[in-house]
Amino acid sequence: xxxxxxxxxxxxxxxxxxxxxxxxxxxxxxxxxxxxxxxxxxxxxxxxxxxxxxxxxxxxxxxxxxxxxxxxxxxxxxxxxxxxxxxxxxxxxxxxxxxxxxxxxxxxxxxxxxxxxxxxxxxxxxxxxxxxxxxxxxxxxxxxxxxxxxxxxxxxxxxxxxxxxxxxxxxxxxxxxxxxxxxxxxxxxxxxxxxxxxxxxxxxxxxxxxxxxxxxxxxxxxxxxxxxxxxxxxxxxxxxxxxxxxxxxxxxxxxxxxxxxxxxxxxxxxxxxxxxxxxxxxxxxxxxxxxxxxxxxxxxxxxxxxxxxxxxxxxxxxxxxxxxxxxxxxxxxxxxxxxxxxxxxxxxxxxxxxxxxxxxxxxxxxxxxxxxxxxxxxxxxxxxxxxxxxxxxxxxx
Length: 397
Known about the structure:
Layout: E1 57-62, E2 69-75, E3 78-83, E4 87-92, E5 97-103, E6 109-115, E7 118-123, E8 128-134, E9 140-147, H1 150-154, E10 163-165, E11 171-173, E12 181-187, E13 190-195, E14 199-204, E15 209-215, E16 221-227, E17 230-235, E18 240-244, E19 254-259, E20 267-273, E21 278-283, E22 287-296, E23 299-309, E24 315-321, E25 324-329, E26 333-339, E27 345-352, E28 358-366, E29 371-378, E30 383-389
Antiparallel strand pairs: 1-30, 2-3, 3-4, 4-5, 6-7, 7-8, 8-9, 10-11, 12-13, 13-14, 14-15, 16-17, 17-18, 18-19, 20-21, 21-22, 22-23, 24-25, 25-26, 26-27, 28-29, 29-30
């Protein structure tokens, strides 16, 4: 079956995107055109069963990307990829048929998240851009806002107390990021953005207004993950910090705990495991560490449950899906790990094929083939799809 690759343009809105009506923000999720194949009619051949000789398999490789792949995110039937250019490409998942391409702004795209019918992109120019799919014109993605919005900016710029001193000796509104935005996360009705300016900002999705800005770390923030109302920030200062709300009636977050495994290293990625209270972090020293949260005397505490040397070089990306953990490294390999109930990791093997560091990972469970489809983006400008079968009786290994 051949793949249809429509040529799409990206019409942009007026110079004042904050005037857009956001009332129907998540009413219609991104959908597949009728001319596209059903999700189970794969264009990529999935191995029918695990093979002991070729247990892991590279299913597809796309190497003609505009630049190094900086971010990947899954949303329904689609995979979004961002590169060091301004372009964002939408692929049908898991077939990697190009569905659309859009982009705008200065500097590379550093991070992506998708929710409902909207996509949030973080950029090197310190802006978060909001895109909305328009089903009226062949699913073209339209730029509807840049954060902070003009409305939010004008509402605060006249008050001197809204300005803060940045590390580059410039005064900015506290709702503005003063450096590249490195990571994004979505939880319920808010978007979190972390930046090299060391701040964590909270944005309300209903009106795209900035609610809070936290000076979270002493160095650049590299990653964010949210689980069960707790926001985890990973930083180059060697700390993982957990942020939460003591009172749900208040909007402000407070520091709940600081997670430290060792000194003189940087945390590059963080990922949470649903339903377990376990958070994994990837370090510049090649280690993957894990902490598990628990209640002690009505107070939530975290204890270190895993600290394993995963790669010979820095670990740049993490992905947790079901009982597996995937780690992408500067050594050009992807580690495949089995997660035990206590958070410990058992090495299963490695995926090799990238010619550069593996910058980002995504994975999903494929029920028919009883395994996982893993997507990896590298600094070698390639996007790869891997097949990892479900491991049976792994506890006996």
